[in-house]
Amino acid sequence: MPEIVDLKKEIAQQLPAELVRLLKAAGNTAQRQQQRAYLVGGMVRDLLLGRENIDIDIVVEGDAIRLAEELAAEKQAKVTKHKRFGTAKVQWDGAAIDTVTARSETYERPGALPTVKPGTIIDDLSRRDFTINAMAIELSPRHFGELLDPHNGINDLEHGLIRVLHEKSFIDDATRIWRAIRYEQRLDFKLELATLELLKQSTEWLKTISGDRIRHELELVLREEQPEKTLYRADELGALATVHPSLKGDIWLMETFALAYENTLPDPPTIQLYLALLAYRLSAVEIEQLITHLRLPKSTAKILRETEAIRTRIEELAMQGPPPSHIYRILHGYSPTALTANLLATDDETTEEHIELYMNVLKYVHTSLKGEDIRRLGVRAGPKIQEILDSLLTAKLDGTVSTRREEEEMAREITGK
After folding, report:
1. Which of 125, 248, 391, 405 is placed for a possible disulfide with 134 were both Cys, Cβ 3.0 to 4.6 Å?
2. In 10 A of CB 12, how many CB atoms?
3. Using one digit for the tens of pLDDT, what is the confidence trace for 263-278?
4. Predicted TM-score of the model (pTM)
């Protein structure tokens, strides 16, 4: 009989007291309902690794919605139910737990979403991606804290290995390829040798996955503390090329992502900035292909297009001594993210200076005179007013005028008034 691993001590030491009380309440409630509840997922893995994680996922042998409803009543919390999937979320005071009915899965074809049916906790753990994520902690009062580890995940944790549960894992769901690489880099683990070979053989199956799901996996990568490590490894293993063959996770990208992180502290870079840098070396046509494939939101697509549009004028920005108004005309109207992407991507000091000049100074320059002031000089409403305002702005950018009086004098000269 295998030795029982008891994690009550680790739970008490590593988790907030309120969270421990919640887990015990879930176990007690499940027992009253003649059900069994288990803590599963990343929290179990990270508890064993001593890493912080407060994402609570509970699997219930029985009816997860019923458990969630009673917990919500006890906590006077909000409960969101999804009866079709047998899942529920309980939310209160900024905290949340997800409850899921234990289930088994089958895949009709590679890349398809699974067909699910109710099952046991062993069934539920067997549908997971990797052994280190296929462990559970029992929450029932008599067995609270006991580890359930049918796939020997604790051994792989101790040896720093990412291992799939079966040889068709990547074929059933090729998004596991991205997750394998992400966990490998985040935890500083290694892909177990057989898993590594299966992954290399399975990258083409990523093409069976919808663009929406690939975008989701890519966004998860970009939320990592060091996403460049995962992208570098994904390029090395052939996964990145399935997103678009021109994407590269090379030294340039690693260095540029590191710059992005350093220059946006204390906040991490946005996903949009990271995507703009990832796509920076793509042509306009290739960017449109990427936008279509990943079904990027309009706001993100706009930033990628703007980043490319600025990049096409980098040679102009690298010229020595252009008047400030010329720099303004090149960069005006583009989003801060697209500007920042080009600032980080360039290795030309003059270009950097010109983009910084625009972002820090020129974009805030405005004329004192407005359209109504020009009309008072006797200019009829129409395009002529905007032409005069543009001339005044150019003069102000270049230092030819600086005060309202000087603007008025220049406007009179232009209009002959």
Report:
1. 125
2. 11
3. 887 888 999 999 999 9
4. 0.89
